[in-house]
Design goal:
173 residues; alpha/beta; 4-stranded parallel β-sheet; 5 helices; 8 strands; elongated
Length: 173
């Protein structure tokens, strides 16, 4: 199946966007160059056809439009195949799925990122580190209550802190 992603047309006659190189030299010695992902007011030079045919991006139902437009500007072709791609912006994969990922394939999530990406899990992990290494080393995050299980602790802290105390309430994700 072919997926077509179109970016809004540039108004005006000539395409006077700055052309940027498709490959950017690495900042590190002995490392290969990286692909350049342009902004809307830039265009990317074409790689030779032999290299361009390798530029395939796996689409998912959650790939944001900004990512779709950016990869299109960088001459990627969208694919829905599960194996023949260089990059993918999608949901968290299940751990067994990572066994099939090639060294050259790039994702927006890696195993376990929900342990720091979810506020409730981040707090639990920071609390464990605080127990292991002490409050002096891990004193950079506020006292946190996970509801509903910490409601009694929150009520006590609320009463003890007085009416001037400010509280931040937010969902765990």
């Amino acid at each position: 199946m072919t997926v077509i992603v179109e970016e809004p047309m540039i108004l005006g006659g000539e395409d006077d966007r700055e052309e940027c190189p498709a490959l950017v030299p690495s900042l590190f010695p002995l490392m290969p160059p990286t692909l350049y992902f342009s902004t809307a007011n830039e265009k990317v030079e074409l790689l030779p056809a032999e290299q361009r045919r390798l530029l395939k991006w796996k689409m998912s139902t959650v790939t944001p439009n900004i990512v779709k437009h950016t990869i299109a500007r960088s001459h990627f072709k969208a694919t829905k195949k599960s194996y023949d791609w260089v990059g993918c912006w999608g949901h968290h994969m299940k751990s067994p799925g990572f066994k099939a990922i090639g060294e050259h394939q790039k994702l927006n999530h890696f195993p376990g990122t929900f342990q720091i990406g979810r506020k409730d899990r981040l707090w639990r992990n920071l609390s464990k580190m605080q127990l292991c290494f002490g409050k002096q080393e891990f004193n950079f995050f506020p006292r946190t209550f996970i509801l509903p299980q910490d409601i009694k602790l929150l009520r006590k802290a609320w009463e003890d802190s007085g009416s001037k105390q400010k509280w931040i309430v937010k969902p765990d994700v």
